[in-house]
Amino acid sequence: MFRIPIIDRYIVGQVTKPLVAAMSIGLLLLLAERMVRLLDITMGKENSFGFIFEALAYLIPHYLGLALPAAMFLGLLFGFNKLSKDSEIDAFLAAGVGHHQLVRPVVILSAVLALISLAIFGWMEPYARYSYRSIIFNVKNVDVFYLAEEGVFMQAGTRTFILDKLSREDNTFQRIFLFDYRGKGGAKAITAVDGELIKVPGVARPILRLKDGHQLQIKKWPSFDKGEKVPRAFVSTFDTLDTPVGKISKKAYPVRGRTARELTIVELIKELAHPVRKNLRHSEMVGSLHKRLVNVATIFILPFLALPFAMGRRRGQRGYRFGLALIILVAFHEVIQIGVVSVKEGTYSPILAVWTPFLLLAAFSLWRFWTLSFVLSKDRLEPVIDKISDFVGYLKRKILPSREGVK
Q1: Which of 32, 110, 292, 403 is the most exposed place for a label (fewest CB within 10 A)?
Q2: Which of 244, 263, 281 represents a domain boundary (last residue)?
Q3: How far apart are the first and last CA of the chain?
Q4: CA-to-CA distance for 157 and 246, rounded, in angstroms?
């Protein structure tokens, strides 16, 4: 029976805890920011929270793909730094377990996370992205009365209305003014003391029932030409008046595949080999494909990039080492983003704009890890980090007021 060595299980456990914590916090922050935007769209709508949670569920694959590499990088930094601070790395080395053996379980872990990332970027995100955009489209293109606010002019199709004292519990309101402009077909103005919104099963538009009101109607919009007669206005009163409110868009959300980001990785490859969709540019599909592949490939080199920064000198500046490591990762991500844009614009080839920065980062990471594992000479980056730390400390002493003598 295959059993995972206890050392490998221990190393994975030390890395997994901060990895899960960082991923959870990152997802919550990203989803919270998006929730605020969704609330602006759905506030007051019936079952608005159900809509919000459905939309957020469609966003999870996108945000998970973004958070996964960063969470793994932070998990490696904090996990191995804890092992180094607690002298457990020294114990492993004394027992004959080298750095190259300690990194083996996290390389396997990175391979598992890379497969998950491939599934996310390759299949889950295109479908989830399309579902999210379609549900937002449906909400924005069906004007619904429950989005109204008290004392605020609202637009619903050809109608503009304002109301007072809105009760969302029973969909009733008091005092409404409604103006319906129909262009050359005239206009209608309605005032009512109160009213209610009635949902009709199987009908998208609700019925607006007005009570105890007045109506002014002209069947033709007046012209400012002196030769034309002024159209007559008809004024009437009513006890009850039913009218549908809102509009239903005649547009239908297009089928999936309108953009390269909505295609799975297999569909992208097939489309590049045998183009069928005329609306997609070849360079756009190439950029999207290589962006997904480089995002997955980056996960494999994260252990070799993170470990030398995590296992520096025990008394060294951990904060500055972690900061420098994160700066390198963020800068690499920005370079890749710029490279993908240039590929989509057809300016550069993906080999130059996307894979050359990846190979440079991979070479730097492997060189750093080789130096840590098999070379006895001092790490060349540690003196640079110490100088940065000394310089920052000098600036603090110069800028911040001295507290000597303060009781």
Answers
A1: 403
A2: 244
A3: 67
A4: 5
Cα 77 versus chain centre, distance: 25
> What angle (nearest 5°) sits at the alpha carbon of residue 305, between those of residues 302 and 309?
130
**What CA–CA distance (Å, rounded) separates 101 from 174?**
74
Q: Yes or no: say if 212 and 226 are a contact pair by the CB < 8 Å rule.
A: no
| Same domain flag for 149 and 127 | no
Nearest to 59 by CA among 51, 70, 48, 71: 51
Alpha helices in 88-208 (DSSP H): 88-94, 99-102, 104-119, 125-140
Question: pLDDT tens per residue, the chain (407 residues)?
Answer: 457 788 888 999 999 999 999 999 989 988 988 888 887 766 555 556 777 888 899 999 999 998 999 999 999 999 998 888 888 888 888 888 888 888 999 999 999 999 999 999 999 999 999 999 888 777 665 544 545 567 777 776 677 888 888 776 777 888 888 888 877 778 888 899 888 877 766 665 667 788 888 888 887 777 766 667 777 788 888 888 887 765 555 555 678 888 899 999 999 999 998 888 888 899 999 999 999 999 999 999 999 999 988 876 555 555 677 888 889 999 999 999 999 999 999 889 999 999 999 999 999 999 989 988 887 666 666 666 666 666 666 677 777 665 444 44
Does 227 fall in a domain?
yes
Where does a domain end: 223, 244, 265?
A: 244
318 and 364 co-located in one domain: yes
Clarify whether residues 86 and 15 are in a common domain: yes
* Nearest one of 10, 3, 1 to 101, comparing CA atoms: 10
Q: What CA–CA distance (Å, rounded) separates 241 from 239?
A: 7
Q: Is residue 83 part of a domain?
A: yes
Task: List the one residue out of 213, 216, 180, 181 whose CA is nearest residue 196.
Answer: 213
In this structure, are 98 and 204 located in the same domain?
Answer: no
Instruction: Judge if 238 and 153 occupy the same domain.
Output: yes
Residue 380 CB coordination number (10 Å): 9
Q: Are residues 279 and 184 in the same domain?
A: no
Q: Verify that 301 and 390 share a domain, yes or no.
A: yes
Residues 91 and 200 in one domain: no
How many structural domains is the chain composed of?
2
Whole-model pTM: value is: 0.72
Within-domain flag for 260: yes
Residue 151 belongs to what domain range? Answer: 145-244
